[in-house]
Amino acid sequence: MTEALATPVDYAYLVTGILFIVGLRYLSSPKTARLGNRISALGMLIAVVATLTQGIVNWYVIGAALVVGALVGIISAQRVKMTAMPQMVAIFNGAGGGAAALVAAGELLKVYNAGNIPTYDISFTSVLSAVIGAISFAGSIIAYLKLQELMTGRPITYPGQQIVNAVIALVILVAWGFVVANYDAGIAGGVLTWFWIALAASFALGILFVLPIGGADMPVVISLLNSFTGLAAASTGFVLSNNVLIISGALVGASGTLLTVLMGKAMNRSVTNVLFGAFGSAPAAAAAGGKKQQTVRSVSADDVAAMVAYANQVIVVPGYGMAVAQAQHSIRELADQLEKRGIEVKYAIHPVAGRMPGHMNVLLAEANVPYTSLYDMDEINPEFDRTDVALVVGANDVTNPAAREDKTSPIYGMPILNVDKAMNVVVLKRSMNSGFAGIDNPLFDDPKTVMLFGDAKKSIDGVVAGVKAL
Amino acid sequence: MSAHLLTEITIFILAVFVGIEVISKVPTTLHTPLMSATNAIHGIVVVGAILVAGTADAPLGAIVGFILVVLASLNVFGGYTVTERMLQMFRPKAPAAKPQDGGAK
After folding, report:
1. Please, what's the b/e burial string for A360-396 (b: 16 or more CB within 10 A of its CB; e: otherwise)?
2. Does B99 touch chain A (CB under 8 A)?
3. At residue A346, what are phi and psi to the nearest 5 degrees?
4. Local structure of A274: helix, strand or coil
5. Where are the domains of chain B?
6. pLDDT reported for residue A235
7. In whole angstroms, what is the distance from residue A221 CA to residue A277 CA?
8. CA angle B68, B74, B75 (to 5 degrees)
């Protein structure tokens, strides 16, 4: 066999691969990150233009689809609120996964329609793309519905859940085997029917595997689905013998996996435990039985204003409650007021605060908080002993000292922010409901803790007014 | 497995290592933009979408092709736009001009 010469399109794809890697490299600093994103976008443009020179016959279909996709994508990306970012990422992720599954389906159809039998390589990898892509697509939709609160954020469990999942997985494997062996087993429609069965079963599995995962575990799920879509894209690269798809998919797969592991570590739980543990359902049931009464001190916004206004250092600990209440702008205003009085204000960010990796950082950035004031858990934890007031805004489990001290607690061993080491702790909460996991937080009845109940944004606005009045 | 596929798997594995190397240098503060940026990058599947849809047989193939390219381009355009929007918010210490301060007092 003589080797074909590389075409200009191949060179263009190589350039794209390099630009993607360089673009990601520039994400290592907030200063160069925007440039990185643009370099990556340039790479994408080059790949798309190069592809359009490849004997396209359905110009109108492609053109119309690109325009529709671009308009919907750009408009929704421009309009989405920063607090709704996890949902948006889930949607785009699902779109990519669905596209990867359909690319594989389309390519396989083409081979069969031409009256050929696909090679083992093609049939194996196209089912692989379809399976991962469909799981990612369906899983992302469920994640979106949960994050958008169109369905309950609590884990949905039923008896025999793992068995049902295992049976579906088995169906996928069998169908996969038949496609690769090109054996129709007498089914109507031939081998392709097995392909559709594998696709449909993967779709079902995608739905079922996200259903039992609770809202607070979403950072893990979003990262994992991101990784899946990357792997699905890489797999379509194998189907189409396209290197740029393979390289890009591998980069995304690596990134998603890395973040998934990181999030799991931040919760001291293995990824399998997050996926199959249905965290939150069991402890919630237990708590309902023998919940001990907590005694807490409730204070007014003016009391809190007096506390923070005479402090030397205040650490703000944001959580998902801040996102729900859209309190980030009010927090920034409070910080401005305090800094005017010469008080140091820092922000402590737990890796799994919010619903996706780095969720809090983006919200605070939106409110013009300089990223230099945001601190990771390891950086900020030694600072709490030197801090007059820790202001916990809508965070709960990530501040729970039981994770450090109580061996019987379900979250024992999870690294937490040591807010209880601060001289005073102010907890902003909507009500006395326990956190997502249904676990009592001994921080709340610590003698140095006071509670400010109500919507976080209104509470902070009240504190700002109080500080101004002093 | 063909030699060709093995070569491709080699490329894949090397790219995974490059990915881990590059991405482990991204600071936690940028993890959301990182997710969104890699999200946009897996929109590269638009290349596959165009290749498959561009030569699909009408009419069923054209309809599936249309949906396919819409999904993929939604991923690309949405992903890059949202990443850009996020990144322009990240600022270092105290910007010189604070426009919203005037009214706040």
Report:
1. bbbbbbbbbbbbebbbebeebbebbeebbbbbbbbbb
2. no
3. -125, 160
4. helix
5. 44-88
6. 96
7. 13
8. 95
Q: What are the DSSP calls for A377-422, one per residue? A: HHHHGGGGGG-SEEEEES--GGG-THHHH-TTSTTTT-----GGGS
Q: For residue A439, how far is the Cα from the chain centroid? A: 23
A301-469 architecture in CATH? 3-Layer(aba) Sandwich (3.40)
Among the partner-chain residues A40, A66, A82, the one whose CB lies closest to the CB of B41 is A40
* Distance between CA atoms of residues A166 and A170, nearest Å: 6
Question: DSSP alpha helices (H): ranges in A80-160?
Answer: 85-113, 120-147
DSSP, collapsed to helix, strand or coil, labels residue B13 as: helix
Q: Does B22 touch chain A (CB under 8 A)?
A: yes
Kindly report, residue by residue over A81-126, the tens digit of the pLDDT.
888 889 999 999 999 999 999 999 988 988 888 888 899 999 999 9
Phi, psi of B9 (to 5 degrees): -65, -35
Question: What's residue A397's pLDDT?
Answer: 85
Beta carbons of A24 and B55 less than 8 Å apart: no
Q: What is the pLDDT of residues A281-309, one digit of tens each?
A: 444 434 443 445 567 888 999 999 999 99
Q: Give the one of A37, A239, A254 whose C-beta lies nearest to B37's C-beta.
A: A37
Nearest residue on chain A to B94, judged by CA atoms? A370
CB contact at 8 A, A430 and A355: no
Element (H, E) at B28: none
* Structure token pair of residue A78: 């421009």
Domain ranges of chain A: 1-79, 84-276, 301-469
The interface predicted TM-score (ipTM) is 0.88
- Say how far apart CA A27 and CA A37 lie, in whole Å: 8
Given a cut of 70, whether residue A23 has pLDDT beyond it is: yes
- What are residue A298's phi and psi, to 5 degrees? -100, 135
Which of A238-242, A274-278, A301-305, B89-93 comes out lowest in average pLDDT? A274-278
Residue A86, burial from CB neighbour count under 10 angstroms (0-12, 13-18, 19+): buried
Mean pLDDT of A378-406: 92
Which residues, in sequence order, are bridge partners of residue A427? A392, A451
Cβ(A450)–Cβ(A297) below 8 Å: yes
Q: Are B91 and A84 in contact (CB under 8 A)?
A: no
A249, A97, A113, A122: which is closest to A180 by C-alpha?
Answer: A122
B7 and A CB contact within 8 Å: no
